[in-house]
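Predict structure. Chain length: 327.
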Amino acid sequence: MKAWTLAARPKGTPVDGDFALVERDLPALNEGEVRVANRWLSVDPYMRGRMNDTKSYVPPFQLGEPMQGGAIGEVVESRADNIPVGTLVSHMAGWRDEAVLPAAHVQPLPDLGVDPQAYLGQFGLTGMTAYYGLLQIAEAKPGETVFVSAAAGAVGSTVVQIAKAKGMTVIGSAGGAEKCDWVRSLGADAVIDYKGGKSVVDALGEAAPDGIDVYFDNVGGDHLDAALAHAKLHARFAICGMIDVYNDSKPTSLKYIARMIGNRVRMQGFIFGDFKHQADFYRDMAAILKDGGLQREETVFEGLDRTPEAFLALFTGGNKGKMLVKL
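Prediction complete.
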């Protein structure tokens, strides 16, 4: 197989030299294992944290070892009766073209009538993060006002559409006119262009003069501060990601943090692994899809050799919707 490894731990924003493409022999299959030829790879902002040698909710990437990430592949060899050759599966042995895995570590794709790569986006980790973060962590309800940062990204754009399908008023933020127009096309009631010259706190005040009930955070920084400034009484914040600080060790300044006290704001971080029961997710998302409430946008890089390039583009706004690598 060919696989990308971490050659050096990045200092700040990763550079090409932090990655190395290597060749490794795949082992013969043991009983209960499958060999998977990857077709699609996911790159996600959280992977930046795994490049640091620090304790976190997921172990760091090891120098010189194949990196991991979400992938969709086809089983091309099997010694597991329940996973025959030809089965399309999702798994976490990405950043490579092939992998040998225990059958328990792959998940056959449900038959929901969507493209296979959708299970790396709206019908996979991305969609579940949006769905459970909005509805369980933030406990968003019909009629409430929801502010979503990075609303043109994979998670954010899905949050926008789920919130609209559930009868909420949605304010999104995105960078640049094209992305803002796309977020509006998803149903957002108002969109803030954070590159438009006006501060996020002022723009959010204009978009939500009565305040916000829910904030779904993918960014941190000035977006989180703006949400604090305009939080209603008992507002709930679902903290999904903080891409604003992933490549920067400088502390974030939150001028409005004290508003959490008087307004009893609840702020909760979460990760995808917190949610084990997926039947309700598939059922609900399939219904929204059937009703025409889901659009899917993908930014696709072709070829395993472009995987680091796709990953780095996440930090410069190079994606609209889900960032994918097609093999």
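Summary: Residues 1 and 26 are 6 Å apart (CA to CA).
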